[in-house]
Amino acid sequence: METTNTLSARDFSSDQEVKWCPGCGDYSILKQMQSVVPELGIAREDIVFISGIGCSSRFPYYMNTYGMHSIHGRAPAIATGLKITNPDLSIWVITGDGDGLSIGGNHLIHLLRRNVDLNVLLFNNQIYGLTKGQYSPTSELGKKTKSSPLGSLDHPFNPLALALGADASFVARSIDRDPKHLREILSASHQHKGTSFIEVYQNCNVFNDGTFLNFTDKKLKDENVLLLEEGQPLVYDQGKKGIRLNGLKPEIVNLEEGASLNDLWIHDSRDATKAYVLSRFFDDSLPRPFGIFYQEDRPCYEDDLLDQIDHAKGVQGEGDLDDLLRGKRSWTVG
Amino acid sequence: MKNTQALKKVTILFAGDSGDGIQLAGSQFANTTALAGNDLSTFPDFPAEIRAPIGTVSGVSGFQINFGSEEIHTPGGRPDVLVALNAAAYRKNFPSLKSAGTIIVDPAGFDKKNLRLAGYDDEENPLLNKPADYQFYEIEVTRLNRDAMKEVEIAPRDRDRSRNMFVLGFIYFLYNRDLEVTLHFLEEKFKHKPDALEANKKALMAGYNYGDTIEAITRFRIEKAKLPAGEYRNVTGNQALALGLIAASKKAGLDLFYGSYPITPASDILHELAARKNYGVKTFQAEDEIAAITSAIGASFGGALGVTGTSGPGMALKTEALGLAMMLELPLVVVNVQRGGPSTGLPTKTEQSDLMQAVYGRNGETPIPVIAASSPSDCFWAAYEGAKYAIEHMTPVIVLSDGYLANSSEPWLFPKAADLAEIKAPFRTEVENYLPYERDEREVREWAIPGQAGLEHRLGGLEKEDKTGNVSYDAENHELMVKTRARKVALVAKDYPETRLLQGAEKADLLVLGWGNTKGAIQVAVAQALVEGLSVAQLHLRYINPLPEDLGAILQRYPHILIPELNDGQLVRIIRDHYLVKADVLDKIQGKPFLAEEILAQIKKVLKDGNH
Q1: Over pLDDT 70: what percentage of chain A?
Q2: What distance in Å separates the CA atoms of residue B510 and residue B583, rounded to the nearest whole number?
Q3: Which part of the chain is the Thiamine pyrophosphate enzyme TPP-binding domain (chain A) (predicted)?
Q4: CA distance, residue A78 to nearest chain B CA (Å)
Q5: What percent of chain A is helix, strand and coil (3-state, nearest 5)?
Q6: For residues B355 and B516, what is the distance between their CA atoms, to the nearest angstrom?
Q7: Any idea of the CA torsion for A124, A125, A127, A129, to the nearest 10 degrees?
Q8: Interval B557-575: pLDDT, tens
Q9: Which of A208, A284, B114, B593 lies most in the core, judged by the most C-beta atoms within 10 Å?
Q10: Residues near A217 by Cβ (< 8 Å), separated by ≥ 6?
Q11: Is A167 left (phi over 0), alpha (psi -120 to 50) or beta?
């Protein structure tokens, strides 16, 4: 991969008209992506976006790179085959809560455990948008939609707990309305070698408007957003509150009422147990964490596969086709 | 000195419990027989369960081999010799034995318990009530083998496990075979288990020597077959298929990527390929059938020869992705080793019932070339040709094999790498004026691999605008694209060789038209019909979609067409649909291949009753 410093966001914008609904959170994610990739030092021709089906999955059409808009849920598997074939490519899987967690849930968990060096962006808007508003696997229990007029009966997925359960080697959360944070996370996911899983909260202003209001509204977000910073204590609400661990049980403490910074939980994204506890900050009793929950260095599937091939060639010699056709035992007639 | 009798050909059926090592003994006999210079054909037949109830009829495993000094086209109809290691094997297979045939049994397999498990009433022991006119050999395999095991350090529970080698040794003696191939095999297999090696070698030798010591036994001699000159090997269909894929990737200069999910009877292709990493083969055991095919699509996008292999139910799961591959216009080979269906059906049995699925089974207008292999070694050529068309025409191609071809073996006059047809991938490297869906005169678009500056483009399953490949919902454009893709696939037929009859005259009262594994049985039946002076010809179809351009004119020359198929009539519908000719099916849906005699009987019936 060569470094290209000369490209700008405009160079990564394709000639296709962007066709999301006006006001959709996808625009912001697209914009952050287009502005981050020129800074990553990857040649444009070495970048590939692979998506499934859904609103978010139109994403590859708008990036002036290589791309594929595939079929529902299967982007992780397609990207895996592509990466194994061409490990030098920087491959980004674009998926949504329906695409990645419902129809494609199986591929997602297997991608994560194999740790193929891919970046997965899961746009979570907690609704089926493209099919016009049915509840999704991340919709809250009791949600009333066209397909759940009396309220959804489905217990929702916790995407980050799921990713950690599948032994993902990089797990993060960001949100469409915080461009700077999103760019930082995208950049960090690129730096990570292995599968990076990023959940991006994304507002569907047509079918599920305001579902993340707690984390975007000026009056509400201070109390509800916990920004994770490596090596720093878990502090939120303008430094007024913090999180302390009592054993493995997180507790909110008030720093203005005597609690000390020294007592707080220090964020360590290499600690799998703490990452899991963080992923369970999932109801209104605790603030919602954003940032890198977990990262570890673990061998990548495609590297191990290529090592096996190199090893086999080293031990058995580069295969000769005539030897292969002849097999171990042949005989001659006439 | 024993009597030795010369034979032109013989069919032996090895049968026993599925834990008795029948498949291993049978395939060893096949390899030895191939190296001895006979032509041969085998038919392994085993239960779907790993361990079906011991001693029962449903747990019987069989391996039939037909070999001789003349050309062999089928695993034989009714066997001449039945080796039955237990009462269940006898009960299941005796009815199919040739009259006055030879039966070799181990009386230990006919004790009270085994008789009961096989469903015989008390006092119904067939050994006490032997059918007249059959040649019976009662050989105390279990007892003699235990005697041989006395000299070996082996746990009592393992001492009977080498019975299959004892029997094999005896059969080797009977048919004048060398032990060398099997001894060599055992040394490889038990490299790290010296006790097991010793036991198996002892058993093999003991069986052979037993034949030498007993009186009044006739040995048989089968001369070498007069096969075309050249170098041969023995090969099963699944092995040949794997070799064809590797050969095609090497000739095309592409990496081979094989995405697959374990499924009977296709898994051996995955095993064969996984063992060839030094050929640069990348195998990916996917989480499911859908990931198997979509990972292969991703690999093809990246410039590899993407291949996936499966069997019927797995093929059903791949259907949506097949449509995507067809829309993307990327090379992809999809192998379906057909088995008895529908649903889980008969996993270890053969059938040809996925033909309609291959030709038609997708949403939308989705033509895909379909090539059918007709013998174990032909699986090589079907795979090779399938890959060639996939690459050169930028299209998914379905290669049909089946459980019978997959596990059967035959001698193969294998090709030299240098003699294989060239395969030229239509790569795009020129940056100037690149349009992803611009086509050549064969309607083939170019393959622009990611990583090349200036050729960045987006593919997808949404309908594409002509030439640019941009998303388009335009009505006229959709029709144009559907017709263009159909024409592209139809033009694959321009690459076919001329369609030729296998036997019979250019004009006759009846044409027997086959496809897939029925070739050998039809060949024997039509040859016999011709000897008997009947007006019949044989044509075997390899290309089922698109059909060969010269096929219609050939079919028109015959007033009646008979299509034997291991299904309820699928090719027959396609042929009637395309050519409006009088064609009838001879169906068989029993999980077993045709016997030549079944086809011959139908030929006679049609010619007698025929209203031509």
Answers
A1: 99
A2: 10
A3: 53-200
A4: 4
A5: 35, 20, 40
A6: 10
A7: -110
A8: 999 999 999 999 999 999 9
A9: B593
A10: none
A11: left
Q: Which domains does chain B have, with CATH numbers?
A: 4-222 (3.40.920.10), 233-413 (3.40.50.970), 501-610 (3.40.50.920)
B37, amino acid identity: G
Beta-bridge mates of residue B561: B511, B583
Which residue in B181, B229, B456 is closest to A65 by CB distance? B456
Q: Pull the structure tokens for residue B470.
A: 């941009």
Rounded-to-integer distance, Cα B546 and Cα B549, Å? 8
| Whole-complex ipTM | 0.97
Q: How far is CA B326 from CA B115, B147, B263, B330, in A?
A: 56, 63, 24, 7
A49 pairs with which residues across the strands?
A67, A92
Which residues of chain A are within 8 Å of residue B412 when distances are taken between CB atoms?
none
In this prediction, residues B214-218 reach a mean pLDDT of 81
- Which residue does chain A place closest to B280, by CA atoms? A309
Rounded to two decimals, the pTM is 0.95
**Interval B34-76: pLDDT, tens:** 999 999 999 998 888 887 889 999 999 999 999 999 999 999 9
Where would I find the H helices in B160-193?
163-174, 180-189
Rg over CA atoms, chain B: 26
Is the pLDDT at A148 greater than 50? The verdict is yes
The minimum CA-CA distance between B192 and chain A, rounded to whole Å, is 19
Instruction: List pLDDT tens digits, range B391-427.
Output: 999 999 999 999 999 999 999 999 999 999 999 999 9
CA angle centred on B233, ends B232 and B236, rounded to 5°: 135
DSSP annotation of A99 reads I
Tokens representing B575 are 């042929």
Q: What is each CA distance from B550 to A141, A290, B499, B508, in whole angstroms?
A: 63, 67, 7, 18
Q: In order of start, what are the domains of chain A with their CATH numbers?
A: 9-211 (3.40.50.970)
Cα–Cα distance, B347 to B591 (Å, whole number): 9
Cα torsion through A323, A327, A331, A333, rounded to 10: -70
- What is the per-residue pLDDT for B366? 98
Cβ atoms < 10 Å from Cβ of B208: 20
Place of tokens 């691999």: B449
At residue B215's C-alpha, the angle toward residues B214 and B218, to 5°, is 100
Contacts of B227 in chain A (CB under 8 A): 333-334
Record: contact B279-A319, CB cut-off 8 A: yes
Decide if B277 and A331 are in contact by the 8 Å CB cutoff: no
All residues at 6 or more sequence positions from B582 whose CB lies less than 8 Å from its CB, including other chains: B559, B560, B561, B612
Per the CB < 8 Å rule, is B302 touching A85? Answer: yes
Tokens 């042949």 belong to which residue? A330
C-alpha neighbours within 13 Å on the C-beta side of residue A219: 0
Dihedral angle sign, alpha carbons of residues A291, A297, A302, A303: positive
User: How many helices (DSSP H) and strands (DSSP E) are in chain A?
Assistant: 11, 12
CA nearest neighbour of B283 among B248, B311, B257, B261: B257
**Residue B227 amino acid letter:** L
Using DSSP, state whether B231 is helix, strand or coil. strand
Q: Which residue is listed with tokens 């008979």? A: B562
- For A288, residues 6+ apart whose C-beta sits below 8 A from its C-beta are A173, A214, A215, A224, A225, A226, A281, A282
- In total, chain B counts a number of residues equal to 612
Tokens (6 digits) for B496: 């076919």
Query: Quick check: helix, strand or coil at residue A150?
Result: coil
Of A46, A76, A321, the CB nearest to B247: A321
The greatest distance separating any two alpha carbons of chain B, rounded to the nearest whole angstrom, comes to 87
Percent of chain B with pLDDT over 70: 99
Q: What is the per-residue pLDDT across A116-139, written as a single tens digit (0 to 9) for each?
A: 999 999 999 999 999 999 999 999
Cα→Cα distances A306→A21, A299, B283, Å: 43, 12, 11
